[in-house]
Structure formats: C-alpha cells, structure tokens
Write a structure and sequence with these properties.
The protein is an alpha/beta fold and 179 residues long. It contains seven helices and seven strands. The strands form two sheets. A five-stranded mixed β-sheet has the order 1-2-3-5-4. The chain has a two-stranded antiparallel ribbon with strand order 6-7. It is globular and about 50 Å long.
Length: 179
C-alpha cells in the first residue's frame, strides 16, 4: 500500500462537520490541532459557524502565522475537491456581514457565505444554522461591553499560557483557567 492510499484509508468520512469559534488571528487559536483534524476527517458538507477569523483582535494587533494560512488553504482545497462549505459569520467576523448586505449570494473561493442556513439531516429534520451572537443582547446592544468582555477573556488566556508554562516545568498536566 503506498503512502497516499494509506492516508486516504485513515480519513473518516462524515455527512456534515460543524466548526465554530476557531478565532484565526489570535495566539490561542488551535490552528495546528484543527489542521490535524481536517487532515483526518472529511465530509460532504462543512459549516463554519462564526468567529472563524477574529476581526476584533486583528484590528488591534496583527497576528497571522503560517498555520492560520494553512487552515484557510485546507478549507479552500476541500471546497475545490467538492466539499460544500458554508460560512456563517459571527460577532468576531461580523465585518463579513457588511459584504452580505451588498451581495446576498456571496461566495469566496467556492465557500458560500450566508447570514443563516437551513440544514436537512439524513433523517429529514431541519436545523436552523446561525451564530449565537444574534441572540446576545450585550453583543447586539452594548458592543463596548462585549469588547471589554473579550479583552478580559484574552487576558485570561494570556495568564493561562504563563500558568501552564510553569505547570509544565513542574511536571504537571495542562489545566485551563478559562474553562
């Protein structure tokens, strides 16, 4: 068995994959883990349900390592090979919603961009797909407070990185402060 055949046999096939809150553009994004997941899982359809790119953080300071490019490239490659990919923006990538107002049938590199979608399951049930920020009163009505909360969360993640660096030096397992 050659290497390509062996890798293909290790790929798990799914009807649908759901990905959200990836936050590309932040230091705490787990892009490498996502790349590994995407390399070992494929689907007929992939929904990207908001906060895929963290526009809030990118606006303040640019952070975009190669692994973040690799995630985008991997998704574009899957779209080219026939996977239907639907991107529904969330509050951190809401800048995309402005383009949807101008071009309701927006597609980028074969990835469909929508405010919301209806997914039909294998057994015929319908699921309404949208990002939860649309139901968050703070995000909708007091965006300054949502951004303050985001800043505090990013600070907690930074403390978490240092905290776990010391835990690793002491031989202790990873422990998440943010959870």
């Amino acid at each position: 068995m050659n290497d390509v055949t062996q890798v293909k046999s290790q790929v798990k096939w799914h009807q649908t994959l759901w990905l959200s809150d990836i936050h590309l553009g932040t230091k705490d994004c787990q892009a490498q883990a996502l790349l590994d997941f995407l390399a070992h899982n494929d689907a007929k359809c992939i929904y990207l349900v908001g906060d895929i790119i963290d526009g809030w953080q990118l606006k303040k300071r640019w952070y975009w390592p190669q692994a973040h490019n690799d995630v985008i490239q991997k998704l574009l490659r899957k779209a080219r090979k026939g996977t239907r990919i639907i991107f529904i923006p969330g509050n951190h990538d809401m800048f995309v919603r402005d383009y949807l107002k101008q071009t309701p049938d927006l597609a980028v590199g074969g990835i469909e961009v929508m405010d919301e979608a209806i997914h039909t399951t294998v057994d015929g049930r319908k699921i309404w797909i949208l990002h939860g920020d649309l139901f968050d009163g703070v995000v909708q009505n007091m965006q300054w407070l949502a951004k303050l909360g985001d800043e505090l969360y990013m600070f907690a993640l930074k403390v978490n990185r240092w905290f776990n660096l010391w835990r690793a030096k002491l031989g202790l397992d990873y422990w998440s402060l943010s959870q």
